[in-house]
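Thread: zinc ion complex, take 2
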Amino acid sequence: VSSIIRTVTGDISPQEAGITLTHEHIRYAYPGCDYDPKNVWNFSDVASEVTKTLAEGKEAYDYRTIVDLTPAEIGRHPELMAESSRRSGVYIVATAGFFPEVLGIPTHWRRQDIGYLKELLVSDLTVGMVYDYQLTPYKAGILKAATGGAGVNGDTTPVGVNGRRIGQFEDQAIRAIARVQAEIGCAINTHTQPIDYSVTNPGIELLDLLTEEGADPGKVIIGHALINPHSDQLREICERGANIQIDHIGIPWQHESAEELDELLANHIVELAEAGYLDQLVFAFDRFFHHSRGPVTPEEPDQLNELVKLDYLFEEFVPRLAKKGFGEEDLKKVLVDNPARIMAFDAP
Ligand SMILES: [Zn+2]
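Output below.
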């Protein structure tokens, strides 16, 4: 066996992964979009549009690997990933797993037990992902675990099973995800609801559940942790050996402006690096390369996830970090070394 990163177009060595964004969406569409007349799309147009964005990012900034952290129920499209990857030369890592139950985990999957869920995830990772009842040759390379409410009106997520702010279907899915991680060794990236950091540490709740089922915290990335945290919550996650993703760079999620969130992110990054946790940080935008949700309106705040450009990281955010003393070597760790180490596993 050798250590690999599994992309939709085949396994690569961790050294080949290069600059990596750990949480993006090649295509994003809520369950039900597939029969909305406003969401009819053309495969070759979208593939060309996505290819262009990826190829420009590779050319200008040397982006090599994009993790498409889209679970199947919100528009994961294996053929679109493969086509855009082949044409742009950017590696794409696909996801096995689920969205939070308030937005995902369709009925069919709510009715299955942990063993059945586990079989699905193993099949996605080792055989190929299924799309529209057809088995594709494209395998997933990372798992996704997600918790928390929609955060509408600033509402926190209610307490669910085992005293955690994790719903019953999420609990089932996350147990399956943890068991698959323990068996296969691949990484788990996660979604937490930023609002919940005011009432608990959702990253720790997730880690508790995952490690209960045997997952390795060193292979876990806690996502959305820097949007609204207390510094001690971030350190608590790092002390458990897990990794933290800095995401929504340039996207003002739950903040007044990108400027405000960027500054908050940058201060936390520098603080975590000074505390000795540089090896546990990764970067992402959480941007949508294409979304199938019809016309973008002011009421659809997700437009902000589309508007940020791949340039933004290097043109806006890195200079902000540099002013705070974050150097080239630090940047290489976060963009290249850390994601490669976290995502690598022994090819089963
Ligand atoms: Zn996302």
